[in-house]
Structure formats: C-alpha cells, structure tokens
Amino acid sequence: MAKTQTGPDLSYIAGMTRVRAAAGVILRDQAGWVLVVQPTYKNVWEIPGGTAEPDQSPH
C-alpha cells in the first residue's frame, strides 16, 4: 500500500522561488520624451524602477 503524505514536503517548499516585488515607470513629458536612466552597474539604458528589499515598508 502506498504511503500517504500527511504534511508539506519541506524540501520542495525550500526550493521554491520567494515572492519578489518590483516596479518600473514610464514617464513622458508633453513633447513625448520618455525618461530613461543608465545605471552605473550595467551598460544599458532602462526605465526607472527597482525592487523592494525584504522587510521594506510599502509606504
């Protein structure tokens, strides 16, 4: 007879991706220009935004 699992598989849960929060914004002026930023740590232009740190308040 097969063994029935009675609780969560903790090794499976430990390997799951944790919740992440991030946001970006597209800002345009009246002339239609879009704001982009060039981070110092990479060689690309992108929209402003970022990620929330663990335990960071949403306010």
Strand arrangement across the biggest beta sheet: 1-2
Total helical elements: 1
Fraction in beta strands: 5-15%
Structural class: little secondary structure
Protein name: NUDIX domain-containing protein
Organism: Plantactinospora siamensis
InterPro entries: NUDIX_hydrolase-like_dom_sf
Word description of this protein:
With 59 residues, the chain is largely without helices or strands. The protein has a domain at 21-51. The protein contains one helix and two strands. It has one helix at residues 10-14, and strands at residues 22-24, 49-51. It has a two-stranded antiparallel ribbon. The mean pLDDT is 84.
Keywords:
NUDIX domain-containing protein; 1 helix; little secondary structure; NUDIX_hydrolase-like_dom_sf; 59 residues; two-stranded antiparallel ribbon
Summarize the helices and strands and which ones pair or pack.
Layout: H1 10-14, E1 22-24, E2 49-51
Antiparallel strand pairs: 1-2
Quick structural overview:
The chain contains 1 helix and 2 strands; from the N terminus they run H-E-E. 8% of the residues lie in helices and 10% in strands.
